[in-house]
Design goal:
This protein is an alpha/beta fold. It contains 20 helices and 29 strands. Helix content is 32%, strand content 25%. The structure holds NADP nicotinamide-adenine-dinucleotide phosphate.
Length: 674
Amino acid sequence: MSLHQISSFANGAWVPPGPGARTIASAITGAPFASAGNTDLDAQAMLDHARDIGGPALRALTFHQRAKMLKALAQVLSEQKQALYDLSFETGATQKDHLIDIDGGIGTMFVFASKGRREMPDAHVYLDGDVEQLSRNGTFLGQHVCTPLQGVAIHINAFNFPVWGMLEKLAPTLLAGVPAIVKPATNSCYVTELAVRIMLESGLLPDGSLQLVSGGIGDMLDRLGCQDVVSFTGSADTALKLRQTPAILQNSVRFVAEQDSLNASILGSDVTPDAPEFDLFVKEVAREMTTKAGQKCTAIRRIIVPETQVQNVIDAVSARLTKVTIGDPRADDTRMGALVSNAQKADVLAKAALIGQEANRVFGDPDAFELNGDPNGAFVPPMLFHCTDPDTAQRVHDTEAFGPVSTLMGYRDLNHAVEIANRGQGSLVTSLITHDPQVARDVVLKAGAYNGRIYINDRDSMAESTGHGSPLPHMVHGGPGRAGGGEEMGGVRGVMHYMQRTAVQGSPRMLATIGGKWVPGAPEITTPAHPFTRSFDALEIGETLHTAPRVVTLDDIEHFARFTGDTFYAHMDEAAAARNPFFPGRVAHGYLLLSFAAGLFVEPNEGPVLANTGLDGLRFMKPVVPGDAIKVRLTVKQKTQRNEEYGEVRWHVTLTNQDDEPVAEYELLTMCAR
Ligand code: NAP
């Protein structure tokens, strides 16, 4: 049978395998399946193509335009996911595994698309935090801004998630406005290649924004400069080697590493075998051991349980593992497929043997297990070890057998449990199954510094919880130390890995123009008509309405108190109010001031303002006493188009008294028709 020819996409063209190509075997038969790699790939031309063509094209788009592109790409991938499933079985993955890799990857892209639209501006600059007041009179301010790096992101991915691994990096990279060169692990690159083909053939991506290296990457890393990023996922050994590339060190190239880690799951000391948490723990452990045949960076490698529960847990986990049918991942009744290759199988068995020097295997024999598949495939059974002395053991805390292999250990008390967990020297995730929030708090305080994520589950959350092993696009993924010291995803945080944060200092007028957002102190534009009569498109940033003043009387305050029921003493009792350190005597309700402000600035007739959707950052700065006169300044601060029909207008609202002292300030949110 002829081998599948897996191409690279370089400098705008598909390049088939050539000199130096490697043969990739099927995980489920061990027979040659595909060929990939070509040492003739021109790394410099690929980098130039990304930097000179892809980067400028992406940077010309706003965050919202890029987010829309991501959504469309995710839709195209979703429509064609059956083809990805069909091919992916060859990596040894089951249909359930595909849901994590393929559907999980597409879902991640959808989340970034939606976060890009909702949490980032329809602009080219992302503002990080608020304006910083750097001077007494407010004529000199500071603002942190983020702009896209002007180089290229090199994504080097692990074999276990050929689709998710690519998309979880690609989505934030493209959203940032940075082109990517994706280098999947060779063993499963044929699945990535198909996903890249689907995206490129959609015509949605600007030229140069996505290239692919199937096979070796040549000397590309030696050619990186200060505007480039390497985002690596794989083993600690490879990460250590690559991050020492002289060009990466010399040019301070950002190197984000997601490595292997010896993740743990702790059973709380409060959990007895009859509690719902006990079953939950056993289920999570068994699932984490066998999903993707244990080839998950987040899999539970160390199972940490109270000493009194050791035998109960061994029995319960073993009972579950007995039910795991192993074999051809295409078969409906297969629960666990194959490892990615026979080389990987040899590696897992060698690592399991190392662990076996310190722990007894209590479940799973690689030389004797029931197999419903080709014996030449890379199949192994789940293997559970029990280590009786986790304090002196070393291998169980530092050896990652990247397969269905976990070690169980007993702990004396919660401090001991955390000590054992922290001996992983930095993990992607530790889970804790407990119903006691004090136990949860203790573990977070003592193990937080050693973990990128802590997953707590109990009877209250188990129906909706997402699983110990699932990194979510909303939450950061990564971990300290052994786990690589990197961080990915976490919503907009993940986009920042591909942008430069710059502290910009200058006058309000400068900052308002740079950020596309009005800043107090920046020039006002006198509105040509009442701003509520002007459409979203017509309104200009800085457009301002000043209202007439209104005197606040004691009658107003009493009327408002009776009408709303808010008869708090500060509004009703002169002597009591005067005893309060904040008030000179009876004062107006803050909510009365807000209501009067609305009455002052509103334009009552039907017009482009569709709805008031909220109010941010409300501050009452000075009390208003009967007889004071308040007036309002209403300024267009920021505009964000929501769809073809309307957009959000954020107004800066300041209430001042007769002495021009600010008494209240807030941001008003409205939806306005275009
Ligand atoms: P690996 O052997 O370290 O390879 C990772 C990637 O590095 C592959 O794409 C590999 O390409 C590439 N690579 C290796 N040597 C290179 C070199 N000299 N120059 C450029 N690229 C090079 O890891 P793996 O076996 O694919 O994946 C398994 C490991 O990844 C496990 O340890 C697992 O824990 C870890 N992992 C971590 C995460 C996470 O998010 N933290 C996620 C998944 C997996 P080739 O395949 O072409 O050699």
